[in-house]
Amino acid sequence: MTVSPNPNRRGLRQDGPTLDVNLREYKFFPPAARPGAIVRHALLERVTRMGVPHVVILQAPLGSGKSTLLQQIMDGGHAKHWAMAWLTLDENDNDPRRFEAYFIALVARMVAKAGVTMTAQSRVTTDNMLDWVLAQIAQIPGPLGFFIDDFQWIHEAAILRFFRDLLRALPGRCRVYIGSRNLPNIGVSALLVAEEALVLRMEDLRFSAKESAELLISAGDETFDAETASFVQARTEGWPAGVQLFKLALVRADIRHTLEETRDIAPLELVRYLSENTLSLQRDEVQIFLLKTSQLRRLSGPLCEAVTGIHRADALLQELEQGGLFLEALDGSPGWYRYHSLFARFLAERFGHERPDGVLDVHRRAALWYADHGVPEEAMFHAVESREYALAIRTLDEWASRLIAGAELVTVAYWFDKLPLQEVIANRSLSVKIAWALVFLRRGGPKHPLLLYLEATRAQGGNPEAHSPDVVLAMATLFNNDLRGATRLANVPALQHPAREIFEAFELGAAANLLAFSAMAAWHEEEINHLLVLADSHNDYAQAAFSHGYTLALRCMLQVLGGRPRLATEAPRATSGTRPYVNRGMAAAALAAARIWACYEADALDTAERLATQFEEDITLAAVPEFIALSMVSIARVHVARGRMMQAGDTLDTLERLSFQSQWSGVREMVAWERLYLAGRSGDAARMEVLLPHVSGDAAPPDPVWIPVTEALSGPLLGRIRLALQQRRLDRAADLLKSALAIVPVRPLLSVKLNVLQALVQHRQGQTRLALRTFQHACETARSGGCYRALLDEGAELAVMLDPVTGSEVDRAPPPAAPRARKAAWFDTLSQREHEILHLLCSGASNREISERLFLSENTVKFHLKKLYLKLDVKNRAQAILKAQAEIR
């Protein structure tokens, strides 16, 4: 029988998300029900009855019957017309991008089985894959069931976080059944406390005496009687695999006669004893076949013939499967099989002990077979096991082009760790590809041997066909917080031309992204747009959703810098074919970082907090330093706006610690200026004195052609002006503003912020009319693009004292009064935002008027009013006004 060497290469429905990871179809099927298998009626009732928690975890060692029970639960669900889907995991699924592909396919299958068609809206990229999953299952009526087997392989933090979020968010009509050898780190304790999870362990899964007897004693078979069945039950303590092994081994009369000899054998020794006797039942040819093929993770006739030399291997596999010898057919992959893990482990240990050289030979033959048939993952496994490193490196070099472009970086790093470094370095092309994975996984520090090698040899490449390391070294430099140095390396001539192959297109897309980010510092707007168009073009050719995510993040930043943050607050709608991200530690983290900044500048604080809750940890682990700094300073500002000064300090502490550990000098300076700014806003003069030595003070003026993107939020450009204002050095502030405005007239967001600061200086200098005109101009510009925080952070004083709507005499408005010598106890507990709201409250403004004046939603105003009433110890608006007016008098 001819079997396709790679039955995994099958896509999804055309109306589902486009996937570029080769999928193993058999992973979507439960194990086939074995003839004579015991139906676990009591357990089935326990895990499917009404009122059972929606998460059921079967946690037990090998041979406990987890997969069989999951299969029987699924059969029962089919009978009840549930919508269900199955996924078996393996160690390769720790790559978030790979896992993402499988889970999307899992949900797509469930939707398809329910007869629901995915709409175009359902394919739109969202903040993360959780939103996408919930949107899909919302279309499916009735109960749903997810079956996830072999969860013990998963340890990648991003995937575990996704499962924790998923289990909390699934609606009550969804059931999740998980099989695992260990208790997965997916928030099980919290689920148990909330009575939302049920965990069945080894003692729960054991066969009862009745079930063991049912399995052993067959009609017309005199091999087992009630006494023997009772002995087996006692000896195995109902362990399902042990009972099955006894059933196979005790077919031989001589083994039955030695039952008493097994009474004192330990459990693992019992497995070996029974497996040994099961093996000895087979004819010589079958024994050789079993021992050799035990080294394979899955089996087919052609593959087994290649590694054993035994002809008609496909017929032999069918014979073994029909005989119940711990071999099961893989549904969805015709002609493919796998051994039960427990039996395979025994066979592999036996073969390794008897023929260690034979083990290497089997792996070498399997590696060559898989390489010839285009299955790189299995070829890599067997090549490494056989120490055929030359074959492994050739295989990985070709495969890594697709892996890197598809963001399967963990897979690249996983195989790199299994190869000798000197063997890798000898292959320049593979070295470059691995460097990409290490850099984006934050494992590629400047002292990494692979990067040191690429840096040392980059000037030696006389071979035009040799792979240049320039772009990946540029990215490593960017991740070390040196954008200018990265720009010099990334400006490669090939950028303006179509790529010759997929990996080059990926690299050029990344280079275009990097240069676009650099052009934002120089503010060449046309060049930025041109580079982002180039990035999209290269990304499309490479099918690189990874790089495309960074391009989306940069477009978001461009909107913010261009004074249009409101446009960037919503998740961008990706072109059809792209897919949602579970790999939140990569491109999605960059996009989330940019959106958090956009949401803060647009005063969409609720959205900023939601994104921070979802992505803050991922951003700190994976994003570019500037992206991390912008998002975390924005998060700190959100805490300040909500009156949570302690949390704001904690966020800045985290950012400072990260910048210290990573030696990001630019980010450390940004943190120092932000701390000084917040101390000034709170009027803490003593803290300002302590912080002053940590900033650059009256250093040279900023470079007129290079203003880092982070300066638009916090840094020396705005920081020195703010500091001069806080120190009441108005002439100094005016001079700084004059020089700053001269170099940023075409940087819209910075221009708005500088104009607000200028209006504040003019107001404090007594130039009230001029201040009003300057501020009104800034307001018009800010409101058109949604730059509301530019007004609120610096302009609150002006909004209250200069806005003619208040009816104040703006021409004769006095400068701010000095603080009262004595204030009520509650006065100092109010945040700046609460002071602003209280002032407007006392002027008679309604909630709607307050929301319009402070550019907040009415819900946000209500939120602040509740906190305000609590601090004033009052129950309503009237009491709050009376208490505040009493303080003013």
TrEMBL record:
What GO biological process terms does the UniProt entry carry, in alphabetical order?
Answer: regulation of DNA-templated transcription
- Domain HTH luxR-type residue range list: 823-888
| GO molecular function per UniProt | DNA binding
Q: Does the keyword DNA-binding apply?
A: yes
Print the keywords alphabetically.
Answer: DNA-binding, Plasmid, Transcription, Transcription regulation
Q: Which domain of life is it from?
A: Bacteria
**Keyword set includes Disulfide bond:** no
Instruction: Give the matching InterPro entries.
Output: P-loop_NTPase, Sig_transdc_resp-reg_C-effctor, TPR-like_helical_dom_sf, Tscrpt_reg_LuxR_C, WH-like_DNA-bd_sf, WHD_MalT
A Pfam family it matches: GerE
What is the protein name stated in its UniProt record? Transcriptional regulator LuxR family
